[in-house]
Design goal:
It is built from three helices and 24 strands. It is mainly beta. The strands form three sheets. Strands 1-2-5-8-11-14-17-20-22-24 form a ten-stranded parallel β-sheet.
């Protein structure tokens, strides 16, 4: 048999093998794929899952108050190249909770090209966020937000909670790359590690979050950090960081703070026992 033909066969076999380990869905704003979003995610965690939100607009207020999904495999939630709008229409619905399984460690969730807008509940609830990540340990997962926008929201945007972390973890468990935060009036990020640690433990091994090439304009801009690490790189505009725990750590690189107008009685950065680099 011709070597070129053999080569083509090998390429085709490898392609079909790779395709067999992932499942892809086109999510339309007007059909059952969108209505059954929770079921689609939870029922397809035996292989890599890709959800393509190809339309420009999705009305998130048609969903239940909470959409809880369990992550067992790599999952991609992708908007179209021009940005897909998730419009909450002033409602407190479709708060997404990602439960990270302890069975398959090191899985990655990527959310990209999504605009989260108009999550405006009637009353502020400290226990409610637009997005929540819950895990037994920070070594269990990676979350990456690429080219996302969060704007005109009146509720905490993201909370990250882990029950305990006894393992050194050198990588960032959550990353924001090229994201925009515009006109948000509550916490942007809430990091909370429920584990107990001694003063000898290195704080860098807790929840680690990196924000790179992100823009913050007209936010309350609050980062609430407990036993966690936050890195901000190549950032412009004002930010407000609040930490009352001795294990908090902040690393700011190549950033410019200008036109600062913090909408709070607290200063730009408020911390007790906070380490700032």
């Amino acid at each position: 048999m011709d070597l070129k033909v053999i080569y083509i066969y090998i390429i085709l076999i490898l392609y079909f093998i790779s395709e067999s380990y992932e499942k892809e869905f086109i999510i339309r704003n007007s059909d059952n794929t969108f209505i059954n979003l929770k079921k689609i995610i939870n029922d397809n965690q035996n292989e890599e899952l890709i959800l393509n939100f190809v339309d420009s607009y999705y009305d998130m207020s048609i969903h239940d108050y909470v959409v809880e999904v369990t992550i067992l495999e790599n999952t991609i939630i992708r908007g179209n190249i021009n940005g897909t709008l998730f419009d909450y229409n002033g409602q407190r619905r479709c708060s997404m909770i990602f439960l990270i399984s302890n069975i398959n460690k090191g899985k990655t969730v990527i959310i990209e090209n999504i605009i989260f807008e108009n999550y405006i509940p009637k009353d502020y609830n400290n226990n409610n966020q637009i997005l929540q990540i819950k895990s037994e340990s920070s070594i269990n997962y990676y979350f990456k937000f690429n080219n996302c926008t969060f704007r005109n929201n009146n509720q905490d945007i993201l909370s990250v909670n882990i029950e305990e972390n006894k393992n050194i973890f050198d990588d960032f468990s959550v990353e924001f790359n090229h994201c925009n935060f515009l006109n948000n009036s509550q916490k942007i990020l809430k990091l909370y590690n429920h584990g107990r640690f001694s003063e000898k433990d290195p704080y860098l091994k807790y929840i680690k979050v990196k924000m790179k090439n992100c823009t913050f304009i007209n936010n309350r801009g609050l980062f609430y950090i407990i036993k966690s690490s936050l890195s901000i790189e190549k950032y412009i505009n004002n930010v407000f960081i609040f930490s009352i725990d001795k294990y908090g750590y902040i690393d700011i690189k190549e950033s410019v703070f200008e036109n600062i107008n913090v909408k709070s009685n607290y200063p730009l950065i408020f911390g007790e026992y906070l380490t700032v680099k």
